[in-house]
Amino acid sequence: MRLPNGEIAESSRVQSAPMKRLVIALAVMAAGASAAGQPGRRSIAIVVYGGTVITQNGAHQILNPGSVAIDGTDVIEVGAADAIAAKYQAREAVDARGQIVLPGLINTHTHAPMVMYRGLADDLALMDWLQKYIFPAEAKTVSPEMVRIGTRLAALEMIESGTTTFADMYYFEEEIARAAFAAGLRGVLGETIIQFPVADAKTPAESLARAERFIREFKDNGLIVPAVAPHALYTNDRATLTASAELGRKYGVPVLIHFAETEDEVRTAREQYQMTPAAALASIGFWGPKTVAAHGVWVTDEDIAILKRYNVGIAHNPESNMKLASGAAPVMKYLAAAVNVGLGTDGAASNNDLDMFEAMRQAAFLAKLANKDPTAVSARTALDLATVGGARVLAMEPLIGSLEAGKRADVIVVSMREARQTPMYDPTSHLVYTTRGDDVRTTIVNGKILMKDRQVRTLDRAAVLADANRLAAKVRDAVKQ
Ligand SMILES: [Zn+2]
Predict the structure, then answer these.
(1) Which residues face 67 on adjacent strands?
(2) pLDDT for 145-156, tens place per residue?
C-alpha cells in the first residue's frame, strides 16, 4: 500500500507504518549498487534519510520520516523517505532516524578569531572591557597567525554546533577566508575598515586597498562571499564610510557595519551629524540593499522606515546585547515592518560561544521579556531568524536558508535522544528551547560532509585545540603587562 501524500504533514509524531516501510527501503539501499530489482535508481552523492525533516520552505513543511537527496553542491530532492529511497542510490548514507534534519544555521554577525579572547575578561562596563582588555590584547596579538588559529578554532566550534554560514568582520580577513574555505564553511567575510591604525593597516586608505584586493581574490569563490566591513559610524569619518559603501557597490558585494548598538552611539551621532545613526548613514548615501547592520538596538520608528526603504538587513545579537547591557533590539517592530532580521552570536569575547541554538533561545526569551509578552518571537520565529531570515539578511535566500531542490546542500542533523529532549511533541519547540549545539550529529555544507556522527572531517580537532591553547599563553601575557 502506497502511503498517501498526507504523510507530508506538519506533525512530528512518529508514524510507525512509514518507519517500517523505511526500514525495508533502507535494507534494499544497504545492498548497494548491485541491488537487484532496483533498476533506474539514480546514483547520487549523499542521502540523509529517515529523519524529521524541517524544510523551512515557504509552507513550513515538515516530513516525517523524510529524506534529503544531495548531489554535487545541491539538494536535488526533499521528500518522503520511501520515495527518496526508491529513486536514488547514495554513495554515502547519513542515518537521521530519530533525529531532526534542518537547514544549517546562519550566523549573521561574528568576529571568528575573537574566540581567542573568550572569557579573557567578563562582567565589565563596555569601555573598561574594551580599553583595558580587548584593545590591548588585540594590539599585541592580532596577526595572520592569530587570525588563522582563531578561525580554525571558531570553524571547529561552528561545525560542531550546526552553523554552516557565518558573516564575519575582522582583520586579515583573507586568512579567515582561507581557513573557513579549508574547513568547508560558507562565509560572508568583510575586511574591517576603521579610522585608527590597526594590525593589518595603518590608515583607512590602506584598509580600503586591502579590502579591494580581498574582494578581487575571493569574488568567484563557491563558499566565500567577500565583503567590506566599515566598523561603525562612530569609528569612521564620513569619507571613509562613503568610500566603503562605494567599494561594496563597485563589486556588488555586501557591506557589514555595527549599527545603533548602544545609547552612546546614538548620542555621538546626534553630536556629529545632528541625526540618529540610521538617518546619518542615509544622509551620506551609505545604505544599500546588501548592507548588513549588526545590532540595531537603539532605533526610532522613523529609523525602521529608513532601514526598510533601503532593504537593510539586521543582524540581531541577543546574547551580546544582554551581556554588555546594550539593550533589547525591537525585533517585533522590525518584523512588523517587514525588515529582514537574522541572528548572530557576535564575537565570542562578548557571548561567550558561537552556539546558534543558544542565540535562538535567547532571541525568544529576550523579546518576551522586553515586550512583556510571552507570545513575542515564538519558537518558529526564532528558527526562521536563524535560517531563512539570515539568508535574506545576507542576500543569499536563493541559495541557502531552507531545504529545497536547487538550493545548496547546507544541512544539519540534530539528535533528539537526550533526557533533556524527551518526550518530543513539537520538533520546532525542541530545537529552540531544549537543544544545544552539542546535539548536532552531522553537518553538511555545499554538498560536503564536514562532520558525521560528531567526527569532524575537515579539521584536525586535537591540533586545532593545541594551537589555540599555545596561542592563549601569548594573549594572557599581553593583558598582564
Ligand atoms: Zn560585533
Answers:
(1) 79
(2) 999 999 999 999
Note the Cα 78 to chain centre separation in Å: 22
Taking the centre of ligand 1 as the mean of its atom positions, its distance from the CA of residue 390, in whole angstroms, is: 16
CB within 5 A of ion ligand 1: which residues?
Answer: 346
Among residues 104, 115, 8, the alpha carbon closest in space to that of 48 is found at 104
Compute, in degrees rounded to 10, the torsion defined by CA atoms 349, 354, 359, 362. Answer: -50
- Cis peptide preceding 352, ω within 30 of 0: yes
DSSP H helices, 219-262, are: 238-251
Which tens digits make up the pLDDT trace of 374-387?
999 999 999 999 99
Bridging pattern class, strands 291-295 and 255-259: parallel
**Exposure of 175 in the CB half-sphere (CA atoms within 13 A):** 20
Residue 96 makes CB contacts below 8 A (sequence gap 6+) with 48, 49, 50, 51, 53, 67, 413, 442
| d(CA 108, ligand 1 centre) in Å | 10
Q: How far is the CA of 327 from the centre of ligand 1 (A)?
A: 14
Question: Could you report the per-residue pLDDT of 197-209, keeping only the tens digit for each?
Answer: 999 999 999 999 9
For residue 401, the CA-to-ligand 1 centroid distance in Å is 22
Average pLDDT over residues 413-422: 96
Instruction: Quote the cell numbers at residue 49.
Output: 534519510
With H, G, I as helix, E, B as strand and everything else as coil, classify residue 166. strand
| Distance from the alpha carbon of residue 258 to the mean position of ligand 1, in angstroms | 6
Q: Which amino acid is at 260?
A: A
Residue 439 CA to ligand 1 center (angstroms) comes to 26
Residue 326 near residue 262 (C-beta atoms within 8 A): yes
Please give the distance, rounded to the nearest whole angstrom, from the Cα atom of residue 257 to the centre of ligand 1. 8
Cis status of the peptide bond prior to 423, with omega within 30 of 0: yes
Closest CA to 164 of 423, 412, 464: 412
